Structure formats: structure tokens, C-alpha cells
Amino acid sequence: MEVFKKWLETEKFLPPIKDVANIGEEHDIYVKPQPTSDLISSIPFALQHLETGYFQLFSKLKELERQIEEYNKSVEGFVNSLHLTIKNKIELSESARNDCYAYYRRMVSYVLRKILIGYPELVPEIVERKPRYELQWAGAGLIIGSKENCEKGLKLISELKSSDSIIQKAKNLHHKAKELNAQRNKLYEMLYYNVVSKIQVGGIIQGKCDACSR
């Protein structure tokens, strides 16, 4: 069944798995990848065959989908809580249209990467940009404002990346992402072997769909 093959190979069979070691510097707006028109019309029938003919695989798929969605919510909740903590303490706008502003999401991203993978290797520093100052980390701007703003940010970064609770939470989520990716890869292999490969060598697809009864 060609639609199964396309569905698996384009990785549309499960949501993407977020990882706190690689979060974006902007708020994530996840738009589900849109399949081609052929896939749109065929996927419901493919899933009906999976549900009625390969129920164990279908159940594994739905359960892993549930776990990934639950995990992604945990990641975004954790990241948003750090974002809010930083924003409430720095108290600057996030808009670069203002004279003084800060990139809070970038600060969160860099702190978590430093905790989990040791990047950036450089330490954050305050650079004078008359008439203002800039807090930089590995060349990337984090805060543009007064010297006091930048010093406050520098101190906060140090506190966050040395916080036992933040370190433990980040490591737990990072480990969970690895587990979910391993489960995703295993399920991909099971689906490909039990459905696609067997049909390709002449096997008959199990189960039924609405199209079968037409």
C-alpha cells in the first residue's frame, strides 16, 4: 500500500518531539505538515486498515502519539515558566522597537543548552554600546539597555544555570525526548516491516476501510 510508505517516510505518522536542548529562540507555533492531496484522501482509509487489521500496531501508534503530545506540553510549560521568570525579573520589553529590550526566549534557550550540552562554551559578557550596554552570549544579544539591566541579566543567568531544580527538570525532559525518539524509530520499523514490506512482496493488506466496501 503506497500510501503507508509515503505516510511513514515523510514522518507524518506522529507529531515532532520537542527537546529542551534544542528549543527555538522564538515561540513555537507548530503547524502540522500538510500532506499532498493524494495522501489527504488516502490516509483515512490507511488508518482504518491499521485499526481493523493491525490493532496492536494501531494501539501502539495512538499511545505513543498521546505520550508525545503530553510530553510536548510539559516542555512548553517548563520553557514558558522560565521565560516568565526572566521577564518578571528583568522587566524590559521584548520588542526591538524600544530603546531597551531583551530576548527572553533566547536566554532560556542558551541556559538550557548550556546545562545539557555545554554550549555556548563562552561565558556571557556585558559590552558597552554607547549610549547603552548589551549583554551578549557567544556574540548573540540577550539584553540591550542600561548597565544595571545587563548586570541583572548576567546574575540571573548564573542563578538559572546553577539551579538544582532547573538542572534536574531539564535533564529529565531531555532524557524523555531520547526515549520517545527511540520508541518512534522502533514503531516506524514495526509499521514498515509488518505493513509496507509484506504488501510489497505480495502480501494482502489486513483489515478493511470505507473504500473496500464501495
Can you put this structure into words, describing what you see?
This protein has about 210 residues and is α+β, with helices and mostly antiparallel strands. The chain has one domain. It contains six helices and four strands; from the N terminus they run αααβαβββαα. The chain has a four-stranded antiparallel beta sheet. A hairpin with a 2-residue loop joins strand 3 and strand 4 (about 140-145). Helix 2 packs across helix 3. It is elongated and about 75 Å long.
User: What is the chain-wise order of helices and strands?
Assistant: HHHEHEEEHH
Structural class: alpha+beta
Quick one: overall form?
A: elongated
> Helical content, roughly?
55-70%
Please give the domain count.
Answer: 1
Distance between the termini: 18 Å
Percent of residues in beta strands = 5-15%
Mean pLDDT: 87
In DSSP terms (H or I, runs of 4 or more residues), the helix count works out at 6
Query: What are the segments in which pLDDT stays under 50 over at least 5 consecutive residues?
Result: 29-41
Rg on CA atoms, Å: 23 Å
Strand count, sense and closure of the main sheet?
4 strands, antiparallel
Q: What's the β-strand tally?
A: 4
Strand order of the largest sheet: 1-4-3-2
